């Protein structure tokens, strides 16, 4: 849930989710559409389907428990290198390297003296991160969360609080006088009028209904007809929406019309 979504938005959804499905087996027993519904407006809703599939895999292959090694975590649907490393170190104290946007920004400034890291992670950047992780597993886990929090709360992207930074005296970017970023343009993600916005609006209509929804109701979503149809087709292709007979749609695994 926290991937590409702020903590403040995630926390209330996470609390409701854990109250409803406290174990992987509980989630796996629910229809996948209920996971999409409970995901709400966190964004990137395919994550809900992947989490549901991962819960099924944990239930069938790991006796309903979350695997405690990176190798086993990587076999779960939708789990990539970052998620596997984060779960392994934060939940099980494994010494590994957790590199997210915040960590990359901190290391770019403190170690290399750049305002921002490269657009995509490089091999040298990952090697640098690995070298900096302490050898002691418990300390390595604390290190990882500390650097992530430093980037999220102090060494922020737009308004870094250098006066409050505990490593300011070690920071190469500060020592160099805070030189401006000179790399490729860093474009923010547009939202209004995009397919992502329309897909979200279509899912909102379906989440709000316990019954299948007629295509006529989906036409109320503000978008050009061609874009709306394209976005609906993409939701079907992604497994987030199931088409039914007579122009009706539902979340995956939901009830038929009564």
Explain briefly what this protein structure is:
By secondary structure, the chain is mainly alpha-helical. Helices cover 52% and strands 3% of the residues. The chain folds into three domains: 7-65, Endonuclease III, domain 1, CATH 1.10.340.30; 101-175, Endonuclease Iii, domain 2; 195-250, Orthogonal Bundle (Arc Repressor Mutant, subunit A), CATH 1.10.10.
Could you please describe the fold and organization of this structure?
The protein has 13 helices and three strands; from the N terminus they run αααααααααααβααββ. It has 258 residues and is mainly alpha-helical. The chain has three domains: 7-65, Orthogonal Bundle (Endonuclease III, domain 1), CATH 1.10.340; 101-175, Helix-hairpin-Helix base-excision DNA repair enzymes (C-terminal) (Endonuclease Iii, domain 2), CATH 1.10.1670; 195-250, Orthogonal Bundle (Arc Repressor Mutant, subunit A). A three-stranded antiparallel beta sheet has the order 1-3-2.
List the helices and strands in order. HHHHHHHHHHHEHHEE
**What is the tally of beta strands?**
3
N- to C-terminal separation? 33 Å
The quaternary organization reads as single chain
Fourth-tier CATH superfamily name of the largest domain: Helix-hairpin-Helix base-excision DNA repair enzymes (C-terminal)
Q: What is the topology, as strand order, of the major beta sheet? A: 1-3-2
The average pLDDT is 94
Classification by helices and strands: mainly alpha
Key features?
258 residues, Endonuclease Iii, domain 2, Endonuclease III, domain 1, single chain, 3-stranded antiparallel β-sheet, 52% helix, 13 helices, Arc Repressor Mutant, subunit A
